[in-house]
Amino acid sequence: MSVQERKERERAERERLIVATARELAEQQGWDAVTTRQLAQRIEYSQPVLYSHFRGKREIIGAVALEGAAELAVAVRAATAAASGPRAKVTALAHAYLDFAKDNPAVYDAIFQLDAGLAFAHEDTPEPLKDAFAALLECLGQVAGDGVHPGLLTEVFWAALHGVATLSRAGRVPPEFAEQRVELLVDRLAMV
Amino acid sequence: MSVQERKERERAERERLIVATARELAEQQGWDAVTTRQLAQRIEYSQPVLYSHFRGKREIIGAVALEGAAELAVAVRAATAAASGPRAKVTALAHAYLDFAKDNPAVYDAIFQLDAGLAFAHEDTPEPLKDAFAALLECLGQVAGDGVHPGLLTEVFWAALHGVATLSRAGRVPPEFAEQRVELLVDRLAMV
DNA sequence: ACCCGATCCTAGCACCGCTAGACAACGGAG
DNA sequence: CTCCGTTGTCTAGCGGTGCTAGGATCGGGT
């Protein structure tokens, strides 16, 4: 059955190629430029090949989103682990989150902005998404303060970060006071 | 010149019809259903007529966005004016904002989510957008606290509201604790 | 009454996501 | 070694999108 195994390996490899190419193209030229024709040409296959791996374009975006969510969780955990003291940890988390959004705008859009057919806040939420939320919760749950549910504070803090991320990237808020905004968020929302 | 005036009036009337129809269709069936063909059919004109009023679809979305921003400003001002005391005013503002987002999802998307080619945070920002921000500033500027720039707090509070609005509408956060989230936001971000 | 400009529509372009059906390549059976 | 059947891939095309060129038609000014 070595033949079949080889084919499966090649197939998995090609699937990774599709996702990586979609991501790369989206970061370079925006998601509008990620058409099935363009994508097929870049991976040097014809369009229908895409549909033998994914049900449609949405599912490709979804794959990029899951990959990105996993990376976001890693980035957040690394940042909080490197900082010492609750306040520094929360500040590091905020920066890690906002930096991820700034450095990977297309991926961030795939996760949160575009409808990639992802379920959230249910038991059938994909693992990477739950894990990304868990990464936030691990840090923020410790600074919720008395009488405040850790999950609730995490949701609100996350929402605030998400708001800052999207509004600043869309130019809806001036970029020069980014640092002060983070400070204000940390000072007031977290009880440290 | 009465003839020319009548024509101008009819033209302005038709422009309003286009915007109103686009908005209605978007709220009913989502922006995806707002195609130039569908829109043209609803106003009982052919497609090219749309392009004699607007440069393209983006500009139509932009018109809906501006209309919505003006309404949002009105709603926020009405809510804060009706409440007495700083804390009640801020809470009312938050509810007015989130209710607007919930009740007019398509319009809210036009303002903040879709790229309608609108400039923000510049001097050439359209008046309704500046005014909507001013409406937030009028209330939140009074609860910034010592040493915090009113504009900065307004931006952060606005971002938090925006985050809550988008994440809850996309089902990325459970709906049952909406009230508690608002309370937490008001309690911590505003100095009241 | 005629002309001419404004106004509107038909038809079409290039692109999109997606799919049916033809075709080739290749492992396994006789 | 040959033939068959499956598996995989491609070409071609469908119905849709935003947008526009060019012709017809209507109506006010002379």
UniProtKB/TrEMBL annotation, chains A, B:
GO terms for molecular function: DNA-binding transcription factor activity; transcription cis-regulatory region binding. Residues 12-72 form the HTH tetR-type domain. Signal peptide: none annotated. InterPro entries: Homeodomain-like_sf (IPR009057), HTH-type_TetR-like_transc_reg (IPR050109), HTH_TetR (IPR001647), MT1864/Rv1816-like_C (IPR025996), Tet_transcr_reg_TetR-rel_C_sf (IPR036271). The keyword Phosphoprotein does not apply. Residues 35-54 bind DNA. SUPFAM superfamilies: Homeodomain-like, Tetracyclin repressor-like, C-terminal domain. Pfam families: TetR_C_33, TetR_N. Keywords: DNA-binding, Transcription, Transcription regulation. The keyword tRNA processing does not apply. PANTHER family: HTH-TYPE TRANSCRIPTIONAL REGULATOR BETI (PTHR30055:SF234), HTH-TYPE TRANSCRIPTIONAL REGULATOR RUTR (PTHR30055). This is TetR/AcrR family transcriptional regulator.
